[in-house]
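User: Show me a protein chain along with its predicted structure.
Assistant: Here is one chain, sequence first, then structure tokens.
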Amino acid sequence: MTKIAVVILNWNGVDFLRRFLRSVIENSSSRQTEVWVADNGSTDGSTDLLRDKYPEVRLLEFNRNYGFAGGYNKALDSIKAEYYVLLNSDVMVTPGWTEPLLQVMENDMSIAACMPKIKDLKRREYFEHAGASGGFIDILGYPFCRGRIFNVLEKDTGQYDDLREVFWATGACMMVRGSHWQEEGGLDETFFAHMEEIDLCWRLKNSGKKIIACPSSVVYHLGGGTLPQYHPRKTFWNFRNSLLMLVKNLPPGKLYLVFIRLMFDWLSVIKFIAAFSFANSFAVLRAHLSFFGLIPGYLVKRREQHQRNIATKCYRTGKKSLLRKHGEIYPGMVVIDFFLLKRRYFTQIFK
């Protein structure tokens, strides 16, 4: 069995493969590491490029686009490795980038996943949106990071260089233990894209595992490789999937937070309308309609997951709710901190 499989999921990203794949190959060359590209039904010549220019890369070809979640599930079902690294095609890695991640994982078997420091390829002194130096959420499921709150990116001055347990690791670059991936059944394919890695990390933490940010490993992310930040399709997935994630993972007695989140979503609709972003406001409405249609199935998933966690004695119900157990869940509302109290930096809202 391979020690580390670095798996890049590609969909019509031939330009990114030309630009970034060589850095992955050159900086991941060891007998214990294999580089794979799983192609999600590309039509832009990606697979021809891989066969012609990168014969050393292992290639998986799918017949259509299964999304981020489905694509990685299919890929990792076909790859046998002790550790998987999920890596976006628009990431430039640095020399020795896998070694600190592997060391962290090898030193503590309770760690299910870890991530490097993610910096902005265009402005290299700044953190990048997708993960920065470790992910957190608030009680309403809004994600933020050490180094990034909503659209405000901090300059990296070494302020988040400590090894720290976090709530989620980014799907842009995440090392996950293969056995834990299999135990949790991989990513939730209903999500298709966006928020699926946070959902996976929440499930892993509910089962008693740890997620770690390891800033001694550094990669640079271009970002927006598949869709621009404010594309309506991305808005749809982010809003819908956040709600699904809450229904599935919130602890007993905390489902009322979903209704509060719905009200905040309506404030977002008003904000989009005020900015004449009608496509995004409509995307939020479609996200809610889709969410309500999926609620029955997700209540079943919630019950099954809750029963499994009780069976493994990973947590107790009652006063010791998971909301308190997970110290990486901010007990406040980051929307209020950011927009009303003007707190723009991680250390202003979370210690």
